[in-house]
Amino acid sequence: MKPVILDVDTGLDDACALLLAARHPDLDLRAVTCVGGNVGLDDVVINTLTVLEAAGRTDVPVARGAALPLLQPMLTAPHVHGVDGLGDLDWPRSTRSPSTTPAVELLRQVLLDGAAKGEPVTLIPLAPMTNIALLLRTYPEAAAGLREIVFMGGGAGIGNVTASAEFNVYTDPEAAAIVLAAAGELGVPVTMYGLDVFYDVVVTLEQARGLGGSPAADLARKLIEKRTELYGDGGASIGDGGAVCAVIDPDGLTTERFPVRVELAGSWSRGRTIVDTRDFAIDRSTDPDGVSPTVIEVATAVDASRYAELWLGAVK
Ligand code: BDR
Ligand code: CA
């Protein structure tokens, strides 16, 4: 089993990701850390506990992380995820409490434990990367327990929250820039599961309506139905869930290695991930800012039906 940690701002599609990570037999979900994003942190924590309960995984530690981005004001997305972040579904909300250990501390503990056991952990951030930036700057030694980072965010082409930028990076660009820089410095491999593939893994309403008979399957069906009602057409993307698929089944994802920077200024481009598709061997020491970008794997195509089947098989 592959040890993983999810960092989430649950979120309808974070919920799709959590159900998959909690239920798939190839993954060992060691912790879930929460960050403010799609909704405020209190709702993120409740939603995360709620989804893990539905998945029958009350054993997984859940920790509170950063409520706010590093520098800028908070931006949420109730129009995408509902006021409570989980689509305002008719579903009982968890009354459990999260761990008393803060997210950055839990991340450090689980990663150092992974390092000590020779079982490096895959970190899957599906939200603004505030917690991860704080972790890597506070405890860089925890990188010894990191096998890789596979994050949902950014994109080489389109944006969503603006024409240039994707929500998770746009809402805390400094954090994303720190994570990329730290990963480069610490030698942690990074894969960007961005908007170039994010919308492709669609579960149809017909497929979703075949789900049922367990709390996890009932919730999975409701998530797809709600996402379809809000902005789908005959079905909906599992969104963040695709990044978890990429960890379970990397052969379903096509990636290319590119140097990537995060735009921190710009009138219309703040929060954009600038994917440098020029000749890879180009000498970047002449770049105006003199700062080397981090070379990462950028997802460019996905086997969408394979990942949709993977998700359906795990949550049914
Ligand atoms: C990302 O932002 C959030 O709305 C989703 O949960 C996903 O992580 C897509 O831009
Ligand atoms: Ca998310």
UniProtKB/TrEMBL annotation:
InterPro entries with a match to the protein in the record: Inosine/uridine_hydrolase_dom, IUNH, Ribo_hydro-like
Molecular function per GO: purine nucleosidase activity
Domain Inosine/uridine-preferring nucleoside hydrolase: 4-307
GO CC, one annotated term: cytosol
SUPFAM superfamilies noted in UniProt: Nucleoside hydrolase
Keywords associated with the record: Glycosidase, Hydrolase
Any GO BP: purine nucleoside catabolic process
PANTHER family tied to this protein: INOSINE-URIDINE PREFERRING NUCLEOSIDE HYDROLASE (PTHR12304), URIDINE NUCLEOSIDASE (PTHR12304:SF4)
Protein name: Nucleoside hydrolase
Organism of provenance: Kribbella albertanoniae
